[in-house]
Amino acid sequence: MEKIKLNNGVEIPILGLGVYQMSKEECENSVCEAIRLGYRSIDTASAYCNEEAVGSGIKKSGIDRKELFITTKLWIKDAGYESARAAVEKSLRKLQTDYLDLYLIHQPYGDVFGAWRAMEEMYKEGKIRAIGLSNFFPDRFMDLTLHNTVVPAVCQMEVHPYCQQIATQQFLGGYDTRLEAWSPFAQNPAIFQDEKLKAIAAKTGKSVAQVILRWLIQRDIIVLTKSTHTERLRENMDVFDFELDADDMATIAKLDTGRSTIFDHRDPACVKMICEAQFDY
């Protein structure tokens, strides 16, 4: 598995398993199976309500904790200094580990400054190996970074062929912050029927999913992919034995719409909806 070095020297696998919208049973089984197949990065969040299942899946796998890279995230209701410290401790208990490899502020809302101050302290205490952000656009990233000490190691964003985040990746590069892609398949099965992507897949002898994952990897973007099926977990890992050529990369570049196709974090109605969302974790 290829790895990317973060701005604090910590290395993260370039391809990982995301467990969003997995039931607890699915999550435990998928984590265990993914580890068996060679995945070493697991991404969850308190709001996914399956941290305990991730911890159980890891324990079931029998792998040494030091071999894994575990990421989880702080939800909006826990944004704030004291609540963030408590949330980290709660996640550690659920995941059955005494440290996190990466901890992210899940959404750019609420008291993110208090939360970041707590995360900086826990990073310095060694309970978190790297800290970062999720869904922070450059303006919000800049505001947080200017008023704090630790520069985020990662910024997780929606990235797929229809929302390529070209400018965001370039901006983050100025801070040596790595872009990480969630929903690389746009949460839309129609992407697998895209004629241009299908043509590249036919040319390379790979699937459309593999073409998309390879495109992200060749852009030096950390990518999270999700499946509860062994064959798809295996397929998504099988992306390190081929390369897309310049023409392929140019073809995919033309698919960019320059906007989200899933959730607009700058739409007040969307912000209201997500801030009012309730999760029983």
From TrEMBL:
SUPFAM superfamilies named among the record's database cross-references: NAD(P)-linked oxidoreductase
Keywords: NADP, Oxidoreductase
Top-level class of the enzyme under EC nomenclature: oxidoreductase
Residues in NADP-dependent oxidoreductase domain copies: 21-256
Enzyme Commission (EC) number: 1.1.1.274, 1.1.1.283
UniProt xrefs under Gene3D superfamilies: NADP-dependent oxidoreductase domain
Residues at which substrate binds: H106
Active-site annotation: Y48 (proton donor)
UniProt cross-references to Pfam families, sorted A to Z: Aldo_ket_red (PF00248)
Site for Lowers pKa of active site Tyr, residues: K73
A Gene Ontology molecular function term of the record: methylglyoxal reductase (NADPH) activity
Family classification: Belongs to the aldo/keto reductase family.
Protein name: Methylglyoxal reductase (NADPH-dependent)
Source organism: Phocaeicola salanitronis (strain DSM 18170 / JCM 13657 / CCUG 60908 / BL78)
Phylogenetic classification of the source organism: Bacteria, Pseudomonadati, Bacteroidota, Bacteroidia, Bacteroidales
